[in-house]
């Protein structure tokens, strides 16, 4: 049986976001599947064209979900089919959300839904390094304290397990339909954080 002590340390570091991700959904209901899919395709193409017109490159656009299903209503109501297409936009322009939203609304009207937005940090390497160092410092301090309480001397590290999480700033709007905005909505990014948790086993000296 291994002797020693196992402790958990955590470190969290914040940074300034440099990426904005926005998810737009286009949805249509029609009497048959083909019509629903066709209408969603037309409006999705219009939204993509509008976003490209605002300077968004093809590499910054991507489909994140496509759904087609029967639209269930009251008994005896006409059968319909609902189709939807969700597009995710990634941009470095953190102030351009309002312009993108208005362009998408102009292109799709009430077929558009805003599923959410997220501010994030593209390269978290340095933040993870700093958080890892803080986590190990905390783990060692805990282990030294426990060793002192138990009357032992702390030895070498024999095992380390790491987990890390990120906490980007999110804004979710879960609206099923867009509205006439009349003007741009400006959003302000906050800090984005990463947290590293280390489980460290120290042997007794």
UniProtKB/TrEMBL annotation:
<dbReference type="InterPro" id="IPR052022">
    <property type="entry name" value="26kDa_periplasmic_antigen"/>
</dbReference>
<dbReference type="Pfam" id="PF04402">
    <property type="entry name" value="SIMPL"/>
</dbReference>
<protein>
    <recommendedName>
        <fullName>DUF541 domain-containing protein</fullName>
    </recommendedName>
</protein>
<dbReference type="GO" id="GO:0006974">
    <property type="term" value="P:DNA damage response"/>
</dbReference>
<dbReference type="InterPro" id="IPR007497">
    <property type="entry name" value="SIMPL/DUF541"/>
</dbReference>
């Amino acid at each position: 049986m291994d002797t020693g002590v196992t402790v958990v340390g955590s470190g969290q570091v914040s940074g300034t976001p440099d990426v904005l991700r926005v998810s737009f959904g286009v949805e249509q209901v029609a009497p048959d599947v083909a019509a629903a899919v066709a209408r969603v395709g037309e409006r999705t193409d219009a939204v993509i064209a509008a976003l490209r017109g605002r300077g968004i490159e093809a590499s910054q656009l991507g489909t994140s979900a496509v759904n087609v299903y029967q639209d269930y209503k009251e008994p005896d109501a006409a059968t319909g089919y609902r189709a939807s297409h969700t597009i995710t936009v990634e941009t470095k322009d953190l102030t351009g959300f309002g312009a993108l939203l208005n362009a998408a609304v102009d292109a799709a009207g009430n077929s558009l839904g805003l599923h959410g937005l997220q501010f994030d940090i593209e390269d978290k390497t340095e933040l993870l390094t700093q958080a890892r160092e803080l986590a190990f410092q905390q783990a060692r301090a805990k282990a030294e304290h426990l060793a002192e309480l138990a009357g032992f001397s702390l030895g070498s590290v024999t095992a380390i397990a790491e987990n890390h999480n990120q906490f980007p700033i999110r804004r979710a709007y879960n609206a099923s339909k867009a509205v006439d905005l009349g003007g741009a909505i400006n959003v302000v990014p906050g800090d984005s954080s990463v947290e590293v948790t280390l489980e460290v086993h120290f042997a007794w000296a």
